[in-house]
């Protein structure tokens, strides 16, 4: 799907999502630097592997059973910091910003394991923050989009933590890599312009029984290193294996940093997935 008249579309989507995820029903609390590993880790893990949680509490309505978005920041798996995207605040959502370790201090495989530990931790704690594990979404931009698709498509990452990847309500990836991440290729001495698909590629793990998957990218002519085409290939292969709900959307005129206009579409897709799940 390619958005050509995006200003009008964004306006219409924003009107819908404000109704679906109302702003003024609740009060909100914010907790920072919640560790998701047990004590006894090394200093680097203790300082990086932390969560920020922004969540609704009682206001005009009782805050319970709210949808959850676990958000992974970008940065090439080599930098960045945990964040609560401002657009997702005050929408009646539990929003969790995840911090994780970076290459080259750890391998990409270790970063994915951090992501899996963080997701399973908040999944098991979600009631404490008025969230509902039956309305549990993963999302992230760039490196974050890569991490959430890896967790959704390769169940072996969440299984050791007692969580089934198919229990995820949905996954929304913002311009994530679908082939092997370029940082993983760098670990093997492969140039970032040399495409590779191996076990560290979401494409390697396409399967028909995965949770709903929404792939958002910037304009194919403005994106980073063929990012749209990677996601188009992932969409195609998911369709071929029989996955019933993979969507691909390209935002014409926007480059790699396309979180807005992506956020209004993300909320619309969350509402769609929740509605279809309950029908």
Give the tags:
alpha/beta, 9 strands, 21% strand, 32% helix, 279 residues, disordered N terminus
Question: Please, could you describe this protein's structure?
Answer:
With 279 residues, the protein is an alpha/beta fold. Helix content is 32%, strand content 21%. 46% of the residues are buried. The radius of gyration is 18 Å and the shape is globular. It has helices spanning 6-20, 43-48, 108-125, 143-153, 182-187, 227-240, 259-278, and strands at 2-3, 27-35, 50-57, 66-72, 94-98, 131-141, 170-174, 213-218, 246-251. Strand 8 (213-218), helix 6 (227-240) and strand 9 (246-251) form a beta-alpha-beta unit. It is built from seven helices and nine strands; from the N terminus they run βαβαβββαβαβαβαβα. The longest helix is centred in the last third of the chain and has 20 residues, at 259-278. The chain has a nine-stranded mixed beta sheet with strand order 1-9-8-7-6-4-5-3-2, sandwiched between helices. It has one domain (2-278): Alpha/Beta hydrolase fold, catalytic domain (Rossmann fold). Keywords: Hydrolase, Signal. One of its GO terms (molecular function) is hydrolase activity. It comes from Sphingobacterium wenxiniae. This is Acetyl esterase/lipase. Residues 1-22 form the signal peptide.
